[in-house]
Write a structure and sequence with these properties.
It is built from five helices and eight strands; from the N terminus they run βββαββαααββαβ. It has 204 residues and is an alpha+beta fold. It is globular.
Length: 204
């Protein structure tokens, strides 16, 4: 029996971050949470990201679920290059190109520990409050952030301050501070009254 190949379709979507464009696929690109590549060296596990870094204007590539969020340098406007990138991604995936070799990805927490940027978080090591915070982030905040081409990862909780890492379109976005303070902080304070005073972004 012949396997019918589903044609790949990609559409481009602006995000609240003017430097980041989100390219959404009708196929799942990544089973795990997400993968962020800040340069071609980091992009080794991802044939797609490696190729995207050959575009001189590509600054960072973030892949999650069924989309790719690409941050650009200021040398070009998205209006001039979005179509070219969309066509490139479509052709790459249509020809059977692999977005990410997931077995080669290092967990973000592990990477942070290697770089000396913070503790390795093991779900079993989380206290009751931390576990609740992670649940709230997963259920209420991640889906909304993903809509905008970004991701959020819990990094720590100490002295009533929640530390998160913003990835993808959220990283360096002018409105991300507002999102942190108005969105995430208010949800956490509503659901965990008296336990959360502030939310801070610890971005690599």
């Amino acid at each position: 029996m012949e396997i019918k190949r589903v044609p790949v379709s990609i559409y481009a979507e602006m995000t609240p971050n003017p430097k980041v464009m989100k390219f959404v696929s009708n196929k799942l690109l990544l089973q795990t949470d997400s993968a962020e590549f800040r340069n071609i060296e980091e992009a080794k596990p991802s044939p797609l990201a490696t190729k995207l870094f050959h575009f001189p204007f590509v600054k960072e590539v973030f892949i999650s679920g069924n989309y790719i969020a690409i941050a650009k340098f200021d040398v070009v406007e998205w209006d001039d290059v979005a179509q070219e990138v969309r066509v490139f991604i479509t052709e790459f995936l249509t020809e059977g190109g692999v977005a990410v070799h997931e077995d080669q990805l290092k967990p973000a927490q592990e990477e942070k520990a290697e770089e000396g940027k913070g503790p390795v978080l093991n779900p079993e090591d989380l206290g009751e409050v931390e576990a609740r915070i992670v649940d709230i982030l997963e259920e209420y905040i991640k889906p909304a952030v993903a809509q905008d081409g970004g991701n959020i990862a819990f990094m720590g909780y100490k002295d009533k301050i929640v530390e998160v890492q913003l990835q993808g379109a959220c990283s360096g976005c002018p409105s991300s501070t507002m999102t942190l303070k108005n969105g995430i902080l208010s949800i956490l304070q509503k659901m965990l009254p008296t336990l959360v005073d502030d939310v801070v972004a610890v971005n690599g």
